[in-house]
Structures are given as C-alpha cells and as structure tokens.
Amino acid sequence: MKINKGKTIVLLAGTVLTAMGLHAGAFRASGPVALSDSVKTETAAVDKPNSVVDEVIWVVGDEPILKSEVEIMRLQSEAEGTKWNGDPECILPEQIAVQKLFLHQAALDSVEVSESEIARGIDDQINYWISLPQIGSKEKLEAFQNKSMTQIRQDLHDDYKNRLLVQKVQQNLVNDVAVSPAEVREYFKKLPVDSIPMIPTTVEVEILTQTPKIETEEINRIKNQLRDYTDRVTKGETSFATLARLYSEDPGSARQGGELGYMGRGVLDPAFAAAAFNLTDPKKISKVVESEFGYHIIQLIDRRGDKVNVRHILLKPNVSIASIDAAKERLDSIGKDIKSGKFTFEDATAYLSDDKDTKNNHGLMVNSVENSRTSRFKMKELPTEVARVVDTMKVGEVSMPFQMVNARGKVVCAIVKLKARVPEHRATITEDFQTMRDIVTAKRRKEVLHDWVVKKVKETYVRINPRYRSCNFQYEGWLK
C-alpha cells in the first residue's frame, strides 16, 4: 500500500479526532505560542538536516516518519503546556502514522477542499488570535510570532488543508452512524450517578447584522487595480501568476500563483464559479467578478470534465470607520424600535438582517459544533465578539451594536438578543436528551473510526524502530 507524500499535520483538531481520543497536544494550539529561547535552540538543532535526530523511526506504507518530526511536535507541545496521558515518545509517532493513513484515504477517495474553505479556516484562526487580550491587533500578532502576516498565513495553509481533508474522510466514514432514542435511554440508565456528565452553562442567541457599506470610490479603486493587472498581463509585461503571488489577498492560493487546483462548481462561490466555468481561452482573463469574499480576476488553466483549474487574484475593499459607524447607528435605531415594542427582534431579523444563515430562522444562531445542529452554545463555542457581549446580558435583553467578523471573514456590525440561558447542571434524559444522544453518537463514531484504523494498520506495511516496541499503543496491530 502506497501512502501519499504529504506534510505532517500539526493543526489537526476537531470533533471526530477528539472523539477518537487523539491527543490534542499534537494538534493546533488554542493560541499563538511564543517558544522560550531554550526551546528555540532545541528546535533549531532538530531542524539541521544532518542532525542525529533526523533518523527514520517509523515507516508507514512508503512514508517515513522522522525523529525530527516527533521532536519538533514534542517541543511545541511542551511550550503549550500539554499534559500527556502516557509517553509522548510513543504517542506522537503513532498519531503521525494515523494521520498519514487518513490522508492516504483522502487521496484514494479524491477528497477535495477548496482554497476558500482553507482561507476561512485560516481567517478564523488569525481572528481568534487577534481577539486574545495579550494580542489585540495584527501588528502585535506579527511581533508575537516574529513573522509577517503573509508568513503566518503561509505557515497555516498546508496544515489547514490537511486538517480539512482528514475531517472530510472521517465524516464520510461516520455519516451513517445513528442511534435510536431507546439506545440513548438505555445508555443513560446504565450510567452511575457520579458518571452522569455535568452540562456547562449554555445559551441561545439571536443575531441581527448590518454589513457596512463600501464606498463607491473604494470599490472603483479595487476594480481599477484589478483591471490594471489584466492590462499588464495582456501586454506581456508580467505573468498572472507573478501578480497573484505579489498582490492577491487569498492567502491559500497566492503563493501558488493564484492557482486553485481542479474544483467542481459546487465548492466554489456561485458568482466565481459562473465566471470560471465560462472561460474557454487560457490567454483571456475574466472581467472583474464580485464574490462573497471580495473582487477577483480569473485566468483559465485547464478544464477536465466537470472540474476547472483556474488562477485568480483576490482584492478585498477596505471598510471605512465612517461606514462602520453608520451601520452601528442603523442597528442602534433598530434596537430602540425593538425595545419600544414597535416590532420584535425576531420579526426584525427577517426584514432587516444581512445574516443569510439566520435571517429566515428568526435570527437564531445554530451551533454546528460536533455536527449536532443545536441552538444551544457553550460560551466558548460562540464567536469571540458575541460571547464577550452575551456574557453580561440578561435573558430577553437586546445588546448595543458591536463590530465583529462573520463566518465568511467579512466585517459586520451586529446586535444580539439573549433568548435563553441554562445554568450548569447534571444532565437529565428529559432536559438534555440531545446532549446525551450526542454523547452516545460520539461514542459510536469513535468505535467506527477506531475499527477503521485497526483494519488499515493490518493492511499497511509498517516498520518501527525496535526501541518503540515496548510502547503501549492506542491501536493494536502496529507491531508485526
């Protein structure tokens, strides 16, 4: 069995992986980590190509696992304060090996992730870091990481791509896992009282957003800049790929010269897809296209069946402080009308909210964490800006306007209503049936994924350095 070559995943975090019991310490940090001088020195030593630690310690399929990979992950994890449930020298190489199995399956199944998906994940991570009290701005994040924002985004790109690939493979494997109400009740009945989980405080939140208007001058500036790029390429002054590397604001594709790879229509923004699939001549460049991410020009590379490979350059218009203030003023007026009884918050969302995900659901935010599709959120599951506002609100209260970044990476202004708050309590089958069903479902999914890994291990060529043979691995079958 041949394992696809790929970068070791160090940003794998997610529902299914957590359910499998893979240690979070090997994956994405919750915040940016500044390594100590001693750790930096050790890491630098590990990175030396001729270092003694650059030995092959495992082989999975035809893919080697180097001692240096494990050592770097260990040092990063220690800097993050990871507590290991076992020996990290055994835990980490096994996790890397499991990741390689999932990536190989992704290649076999032709699993794809779009650059827009990757970019959204990177934006979410960067926005989260910036929201931390010790960071607070892009400039401080760059200083904290000792890297430019472009470098930070580039460093995150491949890891986020691999993370999404693995998550999609795992989701495909557990899609059909379902449990009946009877199974949930039976599981709950057998639980000792002290094993019944405590349910943390949860909230239900309704949201109404207004998108700050972009000034016509700013839109024209962006469009003219993109048209200038088109003229320069058409005149032969430079290549499209060069301009994409220099100027595109899509961090995922910029370093690839704007190339997205073969994509189906369904994974692309509709307006972008329409323009991309309308191209027939690789020498021609599209007109300026507006998508939910900003403004683009697109160049065809190749078309293969129902998939297209294009390059693009993305520019995002800047939002002025005046536009943000105007959006907040509109929301302030809406909030006053709600409080005076002119109309309800729920009615207002249908007619006045710009949030496509909630406006047809009375503004009710939906929590997709762990694919539960519930309206209840733990505070840590809410967008950072929303959580900060909701934390001090009373049930039924409508907030003052505030600025936030939405799920599509756009600056919006919002008001929220706290619909409900359920204090921390021990789970009951009547009040917390959905939570208990999620627990039982997660348990079943963990079992399915565990069995899949064990089966793949048996089918795959594995060679392990003898000194690891005393390890107590999570998955049986590595030692052959």
UniProtKB/TrEMBL annotation:
Pfam families: Rotamase
InterPro entries found in the cross-reference section: OMP_Chaperone_SurA, PPIase_dom_sf, PPIase_PpiC, PPIase_PpiC_CS, Trigger_fact/SurA_dom_sf
GO MF entries: peptidyl-prolyl cis-trans isomerase activity
Keyword entries, A-Z: Isomerase, Rotamase, Signal
Domain PpiC: 207-302, 305-403
Endpoints of the signal sequence: 1-24
Keyword Kinase applies: no
Keyword Signal in record: yes
Protein name: Peptidylprolyl isomerase
The organism of origin for this protein: Prevotella melaninogenica
Lineage of producing organism: Bacteria, Pseudomonadati, Bacteroidota, Bacteroidia, Bacteroidales
